[in-house]
Design brief:
Organism: Kineosporia babensis
Radius of gyration: 17 Å
GO molecular function, one term: DNA binding
InterPro entries: CheY-like_superfamily (IPR011006), NreC/VraR/RcsB-like_REC (IPR058245), Sig_transdc_resp-reg_C-effctor (IPR016032), Sig_transdc_resp-reg_receiver (IPR001789), Tscrpt_reg_LuxR_C (IPR000792), WalR-like (IPR039420)
Keywords: DNA-binding, Phosphoprotein, Transcription, Transcription regulation
Number of domains: 2
GO biological process, one term: phosphorelay signal transduction system
CATH topology of the largest domain: Rossmann fold
Order of helices and strands: EHEHEHEHEHEHHHHH
Largest sheet: 6 strands, parallel
Length: 211
């Protein structure tokens, strides 16, 4: 059976960067680049008209930033998964993007293979965080007054934040996939969320992730 092609929109204010990313994606059999945008408003317009599977979104752009564009797309019911691809890793940037509805957050120093894996994960609805960003999340553990997760729930959520699937989490923790799903259900209930991406975003906000 033919592999499903992932339709990608690239958003960055630097044409050279857009061209570079587009060229890399063009080399991958199951990717196709359907458009490019140079700022947030154009990203919103093209996302709504082209309906890509994944939007690679820079954050700080003249004419309109990425976080605002993500929030607008979320409000307008866009089904596209937004994967932030940026050089910025401040808590403010990370929180703004994830709170707005981003599926993942990757830094531009990522290797091509990491980017490709993140795009596929985002298209599947999985949350993806750059290792450097995940480290920042973990460093915020003690800042929260939110309802505590169990140690096992924290371990599961940390692996979710790193883009692991349920099967991969089960293998890493030596438990069944059913057990992972149960733990995730408890995490969702405690954080008041309904999906993995929201769990990661809320964990950022409340600082409940840990090692």
């Amino acid at each position: 059976m033919a592999e499903q092609v992932i339709r990608i929109l690239i958003v960055d204010d630097h044409p050279v960067v857009r061209n570079g990313i587009s060229g890399m994606c063009a080399s991958v059999e199951d990717f196709t680049v359907v458009g490019e945008a140079g700022d947030g408003p154009e990203a919103v317009r093209l996302t709504l008209s082209l309906d890509p599977d994944v939007v690679l979104m820079d954050l700080r752009m003249p004419g309109g930033g990425g976080a605002e564009a993500i929030a607008t797309l979320t409000r307008r019911g866009s089904q596209a998964r937004v994967l932030v691809l940026t050089t910025y890793e401040t808590d403010r940037d990370i929180m703004a993007a994830l709170d707005a509805g981003a599926t993942g957050y990757l830094l531009k120093d990522a290797r091509p293979e990491e980017l490709f894996t993140a795009i596929r994960a985002a298209a599947a609805g999985e949350s993806v965080l750059s290792p450097a960003v995940a480290t920042r999340v973990i460093s915020r553990v003690r800042s929260s007054g939110a309802e505590a997760l169990s140690q096992r729930e924290v371990e599961v959520l940390t692996l979710v934040a790193r883009g692991r699937t349920n099967r991969e989490i089960a293998r890493a923790l030596f438990v069944s996939e059913a057990t992972v799903k149960t733990h995730l259900g408890h995490v969702f209930d405690k954080l008041g969320v309904k999906d993995r991406a929201s769990a990661v975003a809320t964990a950022y906000e409340r600082g409940v992730l840990g090692t």
